[in-house]
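User: Second chain of the day. Same drill as before.
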Amino acid sequence: MAATLALLLVLDFAFPPPLPKQRETSTLVVAADGTPLRAFADAEGVWRYPASIDSVSPLYLQALLTYEDRWFWRHPGINPVAMLRASGQLLRGGRIVSGGSTLTMQVARILDPHSRTPWGKLKQMLRAVQLEVHLSKQQILALYLERAPYGGTIEGVEAASWAYLGKPAAQLSHAEAALLAVLPQAPSRLRPDRHPEAAQKARDKVLSRMAELGAWTPEEVEDARIENVVARSLRPPLHAALLAQRLHSAQPGKARIQSSIDIGLQRTLEERVASYFSTLPERTSAALLVVDNQTLQARAYVGTLSFGDRQRLGHVDMVQAWRSPGSTLKPFLYA
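Assistant: Same format as last time:
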């Protein structure tokens, strides 16, 4: 026994787990109420928003842990019973019926990808045990919440919730929680923006499982089944884009930047400015800044008529741009 432990310690020292040295997420600039204004992908172009156990819906955590890994809080990284069951189903049916990977094993695969061979699976299991030794259960779960694959360059439940559902992961319904819990199993095949029928079928499987295990009541599950999986096209948040860029440049290393913007007012004014000034000739723009007189905080910030439009100089922040005083002097001249 002592020799085995010594060997494991030597192996752990020689092949340490590839733990993130820092929190690697996209920079997210949000409005006063937490609604994303604009996100900036990480160095590899991945959209990964900050997430934690406390910031996501309890319904999502229930669906995830009940469907994926009921014994997460008790096992040492691997679940021998689940693996034996999965192996038996594979031998009897000739196909994979249920997986034997724990959430810890899935995190191990995300951090250190392996080949689909017996040696690769063994490596994944050893990495999972290492993670359990080096990290707490809460830290392992937090890594999954931020790094689970959701299709394309979208990683983590928070980014997926905004991308596919247009809402924060803290406000998920039973149906939405079940959907986001199952998507990482096959993110390309189950993407709701491309394969809504397959995504809904997989979601309903999770709902059935939740009812069978008594995690959710039959009434809650039946109500959740009524919700259709809407094929929502991916639209990254883009409001107060130039203000977000300004804040990001001032705090480049910060994962989440809070602004004072009123998201409702911001959206309304962006639409009105774009509509009213859309007939202006090329190379003209407009800007608008709304400030609360009492707090002196910005409530709306429209830096350009059309962000990204080269013909209208959409990259120029007219709120900050130097320009001729023009009519500013007229009151003094008239006086």
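The beta strands are 27-30, 36-40, 47-48, 154-155, 256-258, 288-291, 298-302.

User: Great, on to the next one.
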